[in-house]
Amino acid sequence: MDPLLPPSRPDAAPSPARLVVLVSGSGSNLQALLDAVAAAGPAVYGAEIVAVGADRDGIAGLDRAERAGLPTFVCKVKDHGDRAQWDAALTEATAAYAPDLVVSAGFMKILGKDFLARFGGRIVNTHPALLPSFPGAHGVRDALAYGVQVTGCTVHFVDEGVDTGPIIAQGVVEIRDEDDESALHERIKEVERTLLVEVVGRLARHGYRIEGRKVRIS
After folding, report:
1. Do 99 and 119 touch, CB atoms closer than 8 A?
2. Is 59 within 8 Å of 27 (Cβ atoms)?
3. Distance of alpha carbon 131 from alpha carbon 151, whole angstroms
4. Which residues are catalytic?
5. Sequence-distant (≥ 6) Cβ neighbours of residue 60 within 8 angstroms
6. For a 10 Å CB count at each end of the chain, is N or C smaller?
7. DSSP label at 176?
8. Is the peptide bond before 3 cis (omega within 30 degrees of 0)?
9. For 81-85, which contacts have Cβ atoms below 8 Å and span 24 or more sequence positions?
10. For residue 14, is pLDDT > 60?
11. What is the model's pLDDT at position 218?
């Protein structure tokens, strides 16, 4: 097993898993998680959101968290001497809430060595393509340009690479002749929100192991 990816919840926990959610924009994935927890209750869903962090002020994702009565924190890169200092600050701000899982919900910064050392194997991310195809910031655009017939979204654990961590689950979206990047991305987001809610709940309720590149949910 990769030493950066230890299993954090190898057995189903008797109490809800603690989630810290990181956002950079509208927070639509955060809202999907909030709705799921509210609808089922933390005990049934298996997790509760204990804090929301961001890399910038004035975003809708923070507004969603505040309306839900959740504590928030902001770590801006520009407020620190370099990216390593920012990463250390983000790590400590997140660790203050003792999360079992960290969910990167549209968080647009690459997490650094300190964060991975503290939370490796517990950071869940989404990507709008079927990894390992089309990693990086333009997954939707790249899939369209390549001419593939299907694309989709991937929920995966974060490692030190860019969209290279072990894959947990994937959802398929067919590409239509009339699709442009915006229309395709919106359909992918719909699948992504549903898949993220399902995956986080399963990880929290049942526990998991990471064996090489395989994620085993108990």
Report:
1. yes
2. yes
3. 9
4. 127
5. 25, 26, 27
6. N
7. P
8. no
9. 83/112, 84/112, 84/113, 84/114
10. yes
11. 87
Q: Bridge partners of 74?
A: 54
Residue in the structure block whose two tokens are 């204990």 = 50
Q: 52 is written with which tokens? A: 């929301």
Residue 39 backbone phi and psi in degrees, to 5: -70, -45
Q: Residue holding tokens 């955060």?
A: 30
The HSE-up count of residue 15 (CA atoms within 13 Å, CB side) is 5
Going by C-alpha positions, the residue among 161, 185, 162, 166 that lies closest to residue 175 is 185
What pTM value is reported for the model? 0.93
* Topology (CATH level 3) of domain 17-207: Rossmann fold (3.40.50)
Locate the domains of the chain by residue range: 17-207
What CA–CA distance (Å, rounded) separates 95 from 80? Answer: 18
Q: What is the rounded average pLDDT of the residues 95-109?
A: 97
Mean pLDDT to the nearest integer, 133-141: 97
Instruction: Report whether pLDDT(24) > 70.
Output: yes
Q: pLDDT grade, residue 8 (50/70/90)?
A: very low
**pLDDT tens digits along 156-192:** 999 999 999 999 999 999 999 999 999 999 999 999 9
